[in-house]
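Data deposition worksheet. Section B asks for the primary sequence of the deposited chain exactly as it was used as input, without tags or linkers unless they were present during the calculation. Section C holds the resulting structure in token form. Section D is free text for depositor observations; keep each observation to a single sentence. Incomplete worksheets are returned to the depositor.
Section A, Depositor: J.P.
Section B:
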Amino acid sequence: MDFISMETFLTFAGCLVIVAIVTQAIKNIPPLKNINSAWSALIVSIVVGIVRLIFVGDFSTTGIIVGIFNIFVIYLGSIGGYESVKQITQYFSNK
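Section C:
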């Protein structure tokens, strides 16, 4: 009865849960309180994506490229991708 198992870690939802939990934990550490949560989520997403790539073990060029894209998908999912993309599009459409 593991909460986070290897199978969970390899799924998109599992990675989102890990990023969300670690980001929330980081927000409460006194020296890191002043860091924006979006930056914390990006850093945690990169770490989770790299660890996931190591667990998957696909070190081909395609595997690494897909792993890098997955990092950004995990990041967008963890911070609410729709709202982020919406803000970016509104920013550029108003210029």
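Section D:
The chain has a mean pLDDT of 82.
The chain has five helices and no strands.
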